[in-house]
Amino acid sequence: MEPLKRKAAYIGLPLAVAMAAVASAWAILPACGLSGLPWTEHCPPTREPRAEGRLDHLAARRAALEAEVAALQRRVAALPICERPPPAAEPESPPPPLARQEPPAPPPPQPDIRQDQWDRRDVSLLEGCWDLDSNFETVQPGNVRHPVRSWSMCFDANGQGRQEFRAFRDQRPCSGGVRGQFSGTGDLNINFTENARCRPGGEIIRRNATCTLRPDGRAACTSIRQSDRLRQTFVLRRRQ
Q: What topology is assigned to 115-238 in CATH?
């Protein structure tokens, strides 16, 4: 019997230790919020080491971002304060359209001869060149008549001048001396100082003309041919 008791003691002691361990584990399971069979359930650790490291990294990142935001806020606070621009002015209403105005009338043309010069008997009024509007004609044998064309006279300030024109059937050029002067009665006399000679031949006999001032500022003249007292007329028109 003694060996049997000793053998039972050897078996019972480990069994008692195992049962005590199981009882302790069973008592811990409710604290973990678990129940069930001991070989299918367990109590997980409260925090894994990897998750704890992740939380530490996020906390450090948050601290860095907060520091960056604080630095930006300090920079913004140090900037100068910008004044608000003044409000835009309201556009002015357009002015009323101007009444249409007719262009001013052009000034009257200057007369070829001023009345005050004529009244002073100032022969320098003839200075320059003049075109003549005339009814002059040349008469050839058989009473053949041809008008004088392109007749002009040019004078200096003393009334000395020359005339040029075209005459006869072939309109040959002719020229000769002329002189202008005022008479005692206030008329302007323009006289041929010589017969006008033509090229290649022929001449126009001397004439004397008496001129009066028209209201339009031009001199109207009547000439008399000395040989037969033939009267003809012309008008002095200042060349432009």
A: Lipocalin (2.40.128)
